[in-house]
Amino acid sequence: MTRGRRAVAIVGVVLLAGGLAWGASGLYDFGHYHALYGKIVARDAVPDRSATNSVVVTAFDYRAFDTLGEEFILFVAVVGVAVLLRRLRGESGRDEDEVAEEDRRASESTRWIGMALVGPLVVLTAYIVVHGHLTPGGGFQGGVILMGAVAFVAVGGESLVLLHLRRTSSWVEMSESAGAAGFAMLGFGGLIGAGAFFQNFIANGTSGLLTGGFIPLANIAVGLEVGGALMMVISEFFDQRLHGQAT
Amino acid sequence: MSIYPYVVAAWLLGAGLWGVMSSRNYVHLIICLTVMQASTYVLLLSVGYVSHGKAPIFADIPTNSVVVDPVVQALSLTDVVVEATIVALLLALVVQANKRFNTVDPDAMTRMRE
Amino acid sequence: MSQLAPLAVAVPLLGAALLIFFHALMPRIAAELIALAVATASLVMTLLLLIHVGHGLTVYWFGGWHPRHGVAIGINFAVTAVGAGLATFVTLLMVLALVYSVRYLDVRQPYYQVLMLTFMAGMVGFCLSGDLFNMFVMFELMSVSAVALVGYKIGEGAALEGGLNFAVINTIGAFLFLLGIAIIYAHTGALNLAQMGAALRHSGDDRAVVVAFTLLIGALLIKAAVVPFHFWLADAYAVALTPVCLLLAGAMSELGIYGVGQVWFTAFAGALGSHVHVVRAILVGAGLLTALWGAGMAMTEDHLKRLLAFVTISFVGVFLVGVGLLTEDGVAGTAVYVLADGFGKALLFACVGIVQHRLGKVGQHRLHGRGRRLVATGLLVTAGGLLVASIPPFGPFLGKSMIDDAAIKVGYGFVPPLVALTSALCGAAVLRAAARVFRGWGAVPRDPPDEADEDTEPETIEPHDRTPATMFVPAFALLAGAVATGVWSGLPDLAATAAHRFADFAGYHAAVFRTPRHLGPVSSGSPEWFDYLYGSGATVLAVALAGLGLWGERLLPGWRRVSTAATALIRPVRDLHTGKIGDYTAALTLGVGILGVLLTVSLA
Q: What is the chain B residue with the closest CA to A29?
């Protein structure tokens, strides 16, 4: 680090981080949150939607439009990864057999455990996604767990399976975009069915899974999208092993 | 204890910024951005905390219990996953930059003239 | 009718998702046409929304969640004429950029179209939103799309570096924004701007408010590329695809300034209103610094896109001066100037794109004289340069004179000459470049200062010996837009009325939570005689400086010494633009820190 940069950095960090601490200390003490917004949401989420997870009700109903935006940020970031890691004409590649050879060096037990865990993780994902409005969970968390399943496969040494899957069928991209489009369409459904964009147009159920109006559907859409998106990201990065030689 | 979490958030911000400014490896730089990201979550979640409040999930607690603020939790929840994907985007840029420049040192990567 | 507001954002998003869903089935032309259709639909929707909003404020609550007990529990869009107007302008630029990209741009469909559509959706959402966290989400959506679009040309090292610098700086800005949101949410209990403003009116200016304001404004100024947060912009614009530059220059930088105005007028004017002189001085000071810095750097740049990037930075400075005056007249003037100038800058980028397509290079010295056959493009660039120099009576001149008049009204009489100087310098830089490239005038220097072109890949596919209509038509449309904004006599009054509503802090809360109070139309003054003087003076000075730049050594004996002295003066500033992310981050950190100190000390 040059001396100039170091001097500027020291002053800057002290001012900025110090300023943040100084300013935040002018707020109420930790633990004394007292605003009405949180209280109203906590009080009304259950009666409004018969769903017990008020955080998910906030994210997918009261503030559904924010979640649409966030979901699309994720979508765009993944499209961006696909665009930035695309193959250019004239890039040399490594042989697939070479990579497969490398992969085979992973231990047998890692491979078997990796593959064996995929099934339970998919079931866990489905559970977390569908029960999002009742217990902690939801589409985002479920999608990340699904990515974990993919990571296990890759760590276990079967990354080529992933790549073949990705290249021969476009179902990963389709599931991702179906999730994104699905969530947007729920918004439109609100507009058409109930008069306002993202208005909950499905009646509340009385108990169990079928409560919360469209929130379970929204969770499924987001879960599909996040899972598909993260799978795409991982496979794009692994794809770099095949043609990622520094020129 | 009363302002300690806010100080932690400020410290994380400062540490992350210092890391970005002094980094010699772009992957390390992006992880420092993740550290700064953590400071935003710490601040958001700590302003929503209610002493002796429970999590705002009413599955097995009565609906009139004292709970922490669900709104900031909803904000952070979506943000965590989204920021992770943005990190993936930045790392994709770094991977390609490494292929072009044969280095991941930010200071050595510069081809821009003034 | 107010449903057009969410639709203008949701339709492009849905379109983008569906383009990916069906991408295997789609030939290139289908993806391009669908994207164009979606963008046009958004344009129509935002235009209708603008007409519907008129003088008023349209509020749309998402999910039908109206406020309970005075607390907003859902998200709303609060659309004023300024917001809707900016959204319409953004969609118009996007339509023109997509036309420009048809068939000839070397991009992978449908990814490019998807990124453009989400970019537009984010920008439109940012303009229309009435909720601070929603603004943050739209800000992020814009930034992420822009990062992918800026770094698109992965074959070029410079593109990756520009993309990385842009990405890291913008990400840090987003984090600062979120920290500001956390503090202000804690202080007021609201994410809704109207509710926040009402709460802040009673709270005064304690330190949490000042720090939150610093963080929010800092993040928005980073996005707008105000000095010292501007370093990323020149790197990013130099390497992005031309239609992307068109949008970045014409729309994205302005959104940062719009955000500053929105945050001030709806939320913080209540708490910090008694200190408006201080905040005004800080913002106008930053604006003037940016304007002069950008203009000075533009005069020394060889790379055409970097030159235009610094012209953009200079104009952002003037926009900040206009909005930073924190008065209605300032906002009205900035609105007109943004419109006119957005067209002008987009026009210049479109022309540089044509040059790049036909001649394959973007350095003035390498291109010297090679553009002689591109007659129409040369004329367009010259027209653009004159507009940049605010030649009366056209659009940029009108906007600038409104800002000048607003500045004089609050006692800032030194603003008009400085702004005129920046217009002159920027205009000179453009005109001189046009003369060098398209006419071959001026001496080719023995040792060209910078080689700008080592590995610029062509952006477009063959053939390179003609300019397709899809590139020319948008350029002419942009010129028409820039000219029209000056000639349309009703525009200043419309802008003044819109600004009156935008600045109506007292009525905003009532408007969002109950019914908007009626605000009648306001008329604007017309340019005074001294405005014409400044405008024509700036134009003449621009032409003179361009001429001196080309032939100074032959015409004036002492010119060589003058120009060497001027170059030496600007050299330290040039050296600051190192291209290294660590330096940019350091400047950013220090800048936000100093902004905080200035605000704290003066508001104490």
A: B2
Give pTM, 2 decimals. Answer: 0.93
Tokens 């001149």 correspond to: C397
CA distances, C586 to each of A13, A41, C214 (Å):
8, 41, 17
Residue of chain C minimizing CA distance to A59: C74
Residue A197 DSSP class: T
Neighbours of chain A (3+ CB pairs under 8 A): B, C
Burial environment of residue C1 by CB neighbours within 10 A (0 to 12, 13 to 18, 19 or more): exposed
DSSP code per residue over C387-441: HHTT-TTSHHHHHHHHHHHHHHHTT-TTHHHHHHHHHHHHHHHHHHHHIIIII--
Residue pointed to by tokens 């961006």:
A80
Rounded-to-integer distance, Cα A31 and Cα C480, Å: 59
Q: What is the mean pLDDT of chain B?
A: 88
Instruction: Answer whether C454 sits within 8 Å of B111, measured CB to CB.
Output: yes
Contact C419, C318 (CB under 8 A): yes
Which contacts qualify for C25-32: CB closer than 8 Å, 24 or more apart? C26/C109, C26/C110, C28/C103, C28/C109, C29/C103, C31/C109, C31/C110, C31/C113, C32/C98, C32/C101, C32/C102, C32/C103, C32/C109, C32/C113
**pLDDT mean across residues, chain C:** 86
Question: Does the distance separating the beta carbons of A178 and C597 come in below 8 Å?
Answer: no
CA distance C284 to C591: 15
Q: Which helix (H) or strand (E) holds A111?
A: helix A108-130
Pinpoint the alpha helices (H) of B49-109.
70-101
ipTM attached to this prediction: 0.95
Closest to B93 (Cα-Cα) out of C175, C168, C481: C168
Cβ contact, residue pair A16, B48, below 8 Å: no
Mean pLDDT of A74-84: 91
